Inverse folding.
């Protein structure tokens, strides 16, 4: 195998080029803000309507009505989860991790929203409570609840190891959605998309820019709670990496279940209405 050529020498003005100040790509000063006070008022009187327990290295689907709440909790031990969301009446409207990242940053917390795909581009869910909100950004650049990772999958596993592992999050989500919709796995798989990595602690290395994971700070009793802005079909995978402190896509890590609970408020939040689809006319200059 031939050696790669050495990198080019830095130009004389390299330091000046590096010193240019960054510019935020999407300033959010005009982005409508959720009224968290109204959401919290509605949540206080909410009644539990259901729960789904996700077994380790498996995934399950759940549904949430617009105007209701859902909570993802750690039970049994430190565990991360991979979350997909869809509009159940229009499956192409699904969670768009890339635009959520562009608007809110690489990791999300209380007050941030999960946005849907083009051409709808509206809030699907709003984070109303995060018991790991204290974590912030650690000395490695790691933070919790990322929208930068994709999901562990059998294709990358095959590429890197030559083996097959069917309890990775992509396959887990595929099986769960196929069961829920009563369709073959090959029909369900195209609907599975990039995830919110719930409870996962991740970042990028400073020297090589590689995506890293480290042991999640989540403990039993911690939770991430959302307000459903529209009717939702969700799927959550209890990742085979457990707390993702060592490895994933194998049976090596100790794994634990995750719990999804749904809650119905006695009345919707004051002043709340379901968000409308984006009003861009889709002419694209034609």
């Amino acid at each position: 195998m031939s050696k790669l050529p050495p990198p080019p020498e830095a130009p004389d003005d390299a330091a000046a080029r590096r010193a240019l100040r960054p510019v935020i790509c999407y300033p959010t000063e005009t982005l409508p803000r959720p009224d968290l006070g109204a959401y919290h008022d509605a949540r206080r009187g909410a009644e539990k309507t259901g729960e789904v327990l996700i077994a380790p290295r498996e995934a399950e689907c759940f549904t949430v009505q617009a105007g209701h709440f859902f909570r993802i909790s750690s039970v049994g031990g430190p565990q991360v989860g991979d979350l997909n969301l869809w509009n159940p009446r229009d499956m192409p409207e699904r969670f768009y991790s890339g635009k959520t990242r562009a608007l809110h940053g690489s990791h999300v917390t209380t007050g941030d929203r999960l946005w849907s795909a083009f051409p709808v581009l509206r809030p699907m869910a709003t984070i109303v409570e995060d018991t790991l909100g204290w974590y912030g950004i650690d000395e490695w650049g790691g933070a919790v609840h990322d929208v930068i990772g994709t999901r562990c999958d059998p294709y990358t596993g095959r590429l890197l190891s030559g083996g097959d592992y069917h309890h990775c999050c992509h396959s887990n989500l595929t099986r769960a959605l196929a069961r829920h919709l009563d369709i073959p796995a090959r029909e369900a798989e195209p609907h599975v998309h990039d995830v919110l990595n719930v409870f996962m602690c991740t970042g990028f290395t400073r020297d090589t820019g590689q995506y890293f994971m480290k042991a999640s700070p989540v403990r039993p009793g911690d939770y991430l709670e959302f307000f459903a802005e529209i009717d939702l079909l969700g799927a959550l995978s209890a990742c085979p990496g457990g707390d993702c402190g060592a490895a994933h896509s194998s049976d090596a890590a100790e794994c634990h279940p995750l719990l999804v609970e749904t809650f119905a408020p006695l009345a919707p939040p004051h002043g709340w209405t379901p968000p409308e689809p984006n009003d861009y006319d889709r002419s694209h200059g034609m």
The radius of gyration is 20 Å. The first strand starts at residue 47 and ends at 54. Helices lie at 14-18, 36-44, 97-104, 154-161, 169-181, 185-188.
